[in-house]
Specification:
Elements lengths: L10 H27 L5 E2 L7 E2 L2 H25 L4 H17 L9 H21 L6
Antiparallel strand pairs: 1-2
Helix pairs in contact: 1-2, 1-4, 2-3, 2-4, 3-4
Length: 137
C-alpha cells in the first residue's frame, strides 16, 4: 500500500491568493471609475441586442467571478497535475485574457469605453497571474 502526499495550501498561499483576487477586483473598479470620472460613456451595443450601460456593479461581478473561477481552476490543476499546474494555468490565463478582449472589436461603443473596458480585463489578469500560482522554487 502506497501513501500519497496531499498538499494543502498554506496560510501564506491563501493570503497571497486572496490578495490577488482583491487586487484584481479593485484594479478593475479603479480603471472603470477613472473612465467614468473622465466622462467615458459605457453604453455598449452588441449586434442584435439592446444597448447596455456597463456599470460598476457589472464590473465588480465579472471581475470577482473571473478571479474566483481562476483560483478554482488553479486549485483543480494543482490537485490533478501538481507538476505542471503552474505553467498550464498561466498559459490558460493568458489565452483566456486575450480571448476576453475579442468581443470589444464586435460591439458598438465609444473608443474610450473600449479602451477602459479592455484595460479592466488586463487589470484583472495581471494580479491573478502574478499572485495566484505558487512561486517557483
Amino acid at each position: 500500500m502506497s501513501a500519497t502526499a496531499v498538499t494543502t495550501p498554506t496560510t501564506s498561499t491563501l493570503r497571497r491568493r486572496a490578495l490577488g483576487v482583491t487586487a484584481a477586483v479593485v484594479a478593475a473598479l479603479a480603471i472603470w471609475a477613472i473612465g467614468a470620472l473622465a466622462g467615458v460613456d459605457y453604453t455598449v451595443e452588441s449586434p442584435g441586442q439592446p444597448a447596455t450601460d456597463i456599470g460598476a456593479g457589472a464590473v465588480l461581478v465579472v471581475a470577482l467571478g473571473a478571479a474566483l473561477l481562476g483560483w478554482a481552476a488553479l486549485a483543480l490543476l494543482e490537485r490533478l497535475a501538481p507538476r505542471v499546474a503552474r505553467p498550464v494555468w498561466i498559459s490558460l490565463a493568458v489565452v483566456l485574457t486575450a480571448v476576453s478582449l475579442v468581443p470589444l472589436f464586435g460591439v458598438e461603443a465609444t473608443g474610450g469605453a473600449k479602451l477602459t473596458l479592455g484595460a479592466t480585463h488586463l487589470a484583472v489578469a495581471v494580479p491573478l497571474i502574478a499572485l495566484l500560482p505558487r512561486p517557483r522554487r
